Amino acid sequence: MFTVGACTWIYTRLQRTSGNNTQRSLSAVAVAGVLIFVVFFVILSLFGL
Fold it and tell me: 40, 28, 31: which is closest to 3 by C-alpha?
């Protein structure tokens, strides 16, 4: 759920700054989503959740 919210926020930001360049925004959000998910998963694993 955290990753989806973060990706939505990043996508909206990129759409505003890139002049609605959808292809660039989607590729950047895909990379960011994977990275956010991995980091969040590692943090939760450290706490045993």
Answer: 40
